[in-house]
Write a structure and sequence with these properties.
mainly alpha; Cytochrome Bc1 Complex, Chain D, domain 2; 2 domains; 12 helices; 0% strand; globular; disordered C terminus; binds heme C
């Protein structure tokens, strides 16, 4: 199911990044325990005061380019925060903000945002663009990892309840190799995707209502679990 595009230097880079991440996470047993212990959302809310300028009150995303964090998968948030703090995902806007935050702080912040009231794009559905995005998402197998209703699982992010401009920007970044996660699956999925296809997919996901955190899907999900 996971197709990978042969690209040795990029792969190698990701291997190094993964090793660095593993080393960071394993730096001490205490640190690992901090990452997996249950978070304290009240403490997270207080720590997240510095994030609100860009991510909005309770992570509801008022600014173009800055993602909604509200109702995002907590494992995804924790992992991304560690990646960004360690410079393995380079987000210059956030480098200063994350410096000095401990693993425990990141767990609490992630717990707080995961439980926050979901962001919702204003309804502005373009029926033709939406239908095209729906077809493409199905054909490209996005739901095999992001779940049937695109609500995400573990370290695979929720795609519904997200800003359309951010989704499109993230997909272009994967395609152009400016972003990859702990593996290159997203780069492989987006390899050579056209801008117009990306626009349709982002529109579909942002305008989709089924499976959103405020209208959960009743359909069974495929239940793929990634390690
Ligand atoms: C100066 C603006 C700014 C501030 C302050 C800021 N962020 Fe961000 N953040 C961004 C931008 C812009 C991105 C998207 C980067 C990209 O396109 O890859 C981002 C991305 C993220 C992501 C990745 C989400 C995803 O869906 O991939 C997380 C998690 C996050 N920020 C959490 C935080 C937290 C927690 C704080 C406070 C401790 C914070 N940010 C402060 C601008 C900011
Ligand atoms: C093989 C599994 C897999 C498939 C198939 C897949 N994804 Fe992903 N996706 C992931 C993982 C894992 C991440 C987190 C990567 C990271 O850490 O940057 C991700 C991240 C993303 C993000 C970033 C979201 C954010 O908040 O930063 C977007 C957008 C996305 N995927 C959209 C899609 C779309 C659209 C498709 C289909 C065209 C797709 N994905 C197919 C596994 C997958």
């Amino acid at each position: 199911m996971i197709t990978r595009v042969g690209h040795a230097p990029r792969r190698l880079r990701r291997v190094f990044a993964s090793v660095a991440l593993a080393a960071t996470l394993a730096a001490s047993a205490a640190s690992a325990q901090q990452i997996w212990r249950p978070g304290d959302p009240a403490r997270g809310a207080a720590l997240a005061a510095t994030c609100a300028g860009c991510h909005g009150a309770h992570g509801a995303a008022p600014i173009p380019g800055a993602p909604a964090l509200a109702s995002q998968q907590p494992e995804f948030l924790k992992l991304q925060l560690v990646l960004m703090r360690e410079g393995l995902r380079d987000v210059p806007a956030m480098t200063g903000t994350l410096k000095g935050l401990t693993d425990r702080d990141l767990v609490d912040i992630a717990t707080y945002y995961a439980a926050a009231r979901p962001f919702r794009s204003p309804p502005a559905r373009d029926p033709a663009l939406y239908a095209r995005g729906e077809t493409l998402s199905g054909a490209m197998g996005c739901n095999s990892c992001h779940m049937g209703d695109y609500s995400g699982q573990r370290q695979v992010p929720r795609l519904v309840n997200q800003r359309e401009d951010y989704l499109a920007g993230a997909l272009r970044a994967y395609r152009d190799d400016r972003r990859s996660g702990t593996d290159t699956s997203m780069n492989a999925v987006m390899y050579k995707a056209a801008d117009s296809d990306i626009a349709a997919i982002a529109h579909y996901l942002a305008q989709r209502t089924e499976g959103t955190a405020d209208a959960p899907s009743t359909k069974a999900s495929p239940g793929v679990v990634l390690r």
